[in-house]
Design goal:
Elements (H helix, E strand, L loop, with lengths): L1 E6 L2 E5 L3 E5 L14 E6 L21 E6 L15 E4 L4 E4 L5 E7 L5 E7 L2 E5 L13 H20 L6 E5 L10 H9 L4 E5 L6 H7 L20 E3 L1
Length: 236
């Protein structure tokens, strides 16, 4: 499986029979094979995760399916693409007869929309969207504690269903100051992944090295993808 980092929280995962495009909201797309089914995911309506420009992909690719969080308004979908679009809410399991068969499980975000767990061709891929432990130092302690509790509860739901993804895209956000890696560390501790791809970096790729230098990452630091720039490609 090949994974290409596009921009911010945007990734393209290429399997033997499918192209899985996550949260594209700008950046340069690699060449998309017309021989493979293209599944386009948008985890929620925020402009850094969803761009209506994704619907133009169907003008040049013969087999496109859109999987959108149900917080994205239906009127954002062009009428010509509505038949190609599926909406998911938290807890939904969606099966597509595309790309050799794809099973999508949606989990509840701690912000907007959903996180995606995708099973296909014997591989499991996770994209968190904005599911994260958003601990803001300026918020009231009660708010941060509720966020923490809600996040751990959702990680337990993932763990209880037996998911250990081969590849996981998880936020690592420097705006959270000293708590920048809290959610990613909790994910790797509670769920784990063959390789974790930090995202939502706001182009501060130095955060990856900063995380790797922390004692908390010792058990999984060799499984943190060293993203340096858009267009970086990884084999998983």
């Amino acid at each position: 499986m090949r994974i290409t980092y596009i921009h911010h929280s945007g990734f393209l995962a290429e399997t033997g029979q499918a192209l899985l495009l996550f949260d594209y909201a700008g950046g340069t797309l690699p060449e998309l094979s017309r021989d493979k089914a293209l599944i386009v995911f948008a985890s929620h309506r925020h402009g850094d995760h969803f761009d209506p420009a994704i619907f133009a992909l169907a003008d040049r690719h013969p087999d496109v399916t859109y999987v959108l969080s149900d917080d994205i308004w239906e009127n954002q979908v062009p009428e010509a693409r509505f038949g190609q679009t599926r909406f998911v809410d938290p807890g939904k399991v969606l099966r597509l007869n595309k790309g050799g068969g794809i099973c999508i499980t949606a989990f509840r975000s701690t912000d907007e929309g959903v996180a995606f767990m995708i099973e296909t061709e014997g591989r499991t891929i996770y994209h968190a969207g904005d599911l994260n432990d958003w601990h803001w130092n300026g918020e009231a302690p009660e708010w941060n504690q509720k966020m923490h509790t809600d996040y751990l509860r959702e990680l337990e739901r993932i763990h209880s269903q037996g998911f250990v993804p081969d590849a996981a895209m998880v936020p690592l956000d420097g705006r959270l100051e000293d708590k920048f890696c809290l959610g990613l560390d909790e994910f790797m501790t509670a769920v784990g992944a063959g390789m974790v791809f930090p995202m939502h970096l706001w182009e501060d790729y130095s955060l990856i090295g900063k995380l790797k230098a922390l004692p908390c990452s010792e058990a999984y630091r060799d499984r943190i993808a060293d993203i340096e720039k858009p267009g970086d490609v990884f084999e998983v």
